[in-house]
Amino acid sequence: MKISKKIVLIGHFGVGKSSLIRRFVEDTFSEDYKVTIGVHVLKKEVNLPKTNDDITLVIWDLEGNDDITNTRASYLMGTNGFIYVFDMTRPATYEKLEFDLDYITDRYPKIPLRVIGNKKDLVTNDFIKQNKDVFGRFVDFYTSAKSGKNVEDVFSNLAQALIKDATK
Amino acid sequence: MNQDDKLKILKDILLQDEHEYASGLEDKIKALEDLITEHNNLSKHIDPILEQKLKQFVKEMPSTLGPTITEALKEEIKNSQDAVVEALYPIMGKMIKKYVQKEIQILSENINKSLSSTFSFKGFMRKFRSKKSGVSEGDLLIQDQFKSKIEQIMVIESGSGLIVSEYSKTENIDQDTVAGMLTAIKSFAEDAFTTDVQNLEYIEYENYHIHLQNFSKYYIAVAISGAFTATYRSKLEDKLLDFAQNIINKTDLNDSEVFSTKLKDYFDNENI
């Protein structure tokens, strides 16, 4: 039986949501910044080697929003998994991280959520250690869409959680 | 040994190194002269370098010159729009003319084919329809040529935009992405007009009409080619409502295979 799941990426403008998806789906990266208007839908079929399950991830790349409360609620309906992305080089994108994450979990308490600190290639490990009060509490993965670091792992990890939910 | 001879010997001794150096230089200059004047000798050394540079240039041309050329072309087109129109007009005109001619030819061939079957059952039926409806046989023939045709049916979960079931005779689109984008467009349109609860019911895309029939947990998107008249739309709505009410049940929504079989059985005959 074919399993399809809807994944939504949320975060501020320019944090690299589209680049992460592009890296995951097409394995490409571009320095050119093209702002996402509205929503862009892509998909990728994933095989999970641990369980040998096949799953189709339909990924919704939402336009960036500096205020999460302005996110169009209709785009979030029926979501099976969330990925919250912030840019580690721009504090403005993670200053309200706790509020943003609470906003999602309050409305979608049973939906798996993964938190991503992106642009790992632009910060040092020391920088991450210095910010462990914020990063250490919330972040699941440090990624770089540019180098591809951990990108595959984020989606595989979420897919694994979704498969687990589906087979319960 | 006189004074001059002694001086010469002394000079030879003192300038021996310089002589050797000058002689070495002379040889080198001679070798260079040979290299430059002899075409074959020169090309043997220069050709591989030039070839490598040329290869590198060709390889890097799209990235180095591409943006400059595109920018120059854009600027040029912007500044001389009249000239561009003048240059393109005859070509576009010819293309359109050729396309229209071809389409009319196909239409004419189809009509001729239909007319040649005047004494067939279809022909008698057409005559009968014409007499009954008062519409001329010619109009009915043309109507038949532009008959609506269901190209694809997708049953899509409301909200998530995930495909529940799908049926098409030609599988040439990425259904998951299309279903997602349709849902996103629908969500946006329905959100934008917040005055009342309303649903997006119709999208036109070039030669295709996409009819959206909304239900509570899902909606059905039907892509239609040909003319999409109000009568056809009404009949399609009836058929979709009948399908939702009498053919499918709640459990089918969780079993895409059963749903697809029912969809295929119900819509295989496209005469709506």
From TrEMBL, chain A:
Family annotation (InterPro entries): P-loop_NTPase, Rab, Small_GTP-bd, Small_GTPase
Entry superkingdom: Bacteria
Pfam families in the cross-refs: Ras
SUPFAM superfamilies, A to Z: P-loop containing nucleoside triphosphate hydrolases
PROSITE patterns: RAB
Protein keywords: GTP-binding, Nucleotide-binding
GO function terms (MF aspect): GTP binding; GTPase activity
SMART domains documented for this protein: RAB, RAS, RHO
Entry protein name: Small GTP-binding protein domain-containing protein
Organismal lineage: Bacteria, Pseudomonadati, Bacteroidota, Flavobacteriia, Flavobacteriales
Automatic annotation (TrEMBL), chain B:
Name used for this protein in its record: Cell envelope biogenesis protein OmpA
